[in-house]
Amino acid sequence: MRLIEGKAGWALLAALALAFPLVAPNNYLISVATLAFIMAIAALGLNLITGYTGQFNLAHGAFMAIGAYTVGILTVDHQVPFWIAFALAGVVTGVLGYFIGLLSLRLRGHYFSIFTLCVSYILFLLIEKWESLTHGPVGIMGIPAPSGMGPLRFDTPLAQYYLVLAFLALGIWVMARIVRSLLGRSFMAVRNSDDLAEALGIDLMRTKTLSFVLSVIYAGFAGALYAGQVRFLGPDLASEAVTFDLIMFVLVGGVGTLLGPLVGTFLVTWLTQSLQFLQDYRMVVFGPLLVALIIFLPDGIVGTWLKRRARRADAVQADTRSHVAVTEAKSNA
């Protein structure tokens, strides 16, 4: 894990991602990796509101569906160019998230989570039943691929892979700037204690709402990329199963860490693909593996590593102070 510390580590990860299509044996694996990148973008957003702000949002997958359906409806039914629809997906998701956040964030703890779970189900029903807008259970077919930019074209699996990778890199960079800023410290203060945050002069409602909006904007853009990649949308995208997948990615990788959602998404995706030969029985193997991982690594892979590194650093500092104290005592004697 020491290899992925700092800028050099992120550069190594970027190099590996750039080189993956060169060694991938077929376009199927490239498409799977592209979908993993999209889910990682959504997981980054969920980690902001859950990991850094301490609000367990169970409607995140539904917001991803809102972004996807915004692109699907605008491009298929109204012939809006893809990139305009893509930008509007972020706007629509952010505005909807703002008003839902104003309502839901008045609640705390489990009440907030239950409320967002209800919101998720309401959004799912709206997508399934509002046939004149969303096409209902039939779904939206024929969504165009992202339109080209100058000489660049995004109508092949390889081109879409690099396009989504670029958005993932941008999402990581923006998230890093957020969590390392004064705003990010405000989010973490709210996570640690509402009362302490208020004592420090932090406006709880404004801070929570801002975190909620930023997180669902990530989900909205991820959904927009999903629509351009898969080219078909159905109501299942708004189901709670998508949210639970995103939660699993964050938990496996490490809640409240920048690298955790990426590690969790890629590891779970790789395990899922590796166990496909078991067909209907792969969850019998995958389920216990996931349970064991959560039991023995409750802070996730990255979170556990960070805690162990911090303990080692504390032990080294304690040994150094003890050695200095002994040396000074001997010199004084």
TrEMBL record:
Regions crossing the membrane: 29-49, 56-76, 82-103, 110-127, 159-179, 209-227, 247-271, 283-306
- Membrane topology recorded in Swiss-Prot or TrEMBL: Multi-pass membrane protein
Which segments of the protein form a coiled coil according to its record?
none
What is its subcellular localisation?
Cell membrane
User: Which terms are listed as keywords in the entry?
Assistant: Cell membrane, Membrane, Transmembrane, Transmembrane helix
Leader sequence range is none
Q: What is one Pfam family matched by this protein?
A: BPD_transp_2
Lyase as UniProt keyword: no
Q: What is this protein called?
A: Branched-chain amino acid ABC transporter permease
Organism phylogeny: Bacteria, Pseudomonadati, Pseudomonadota, Betaproteobacteria, Burkholderiales
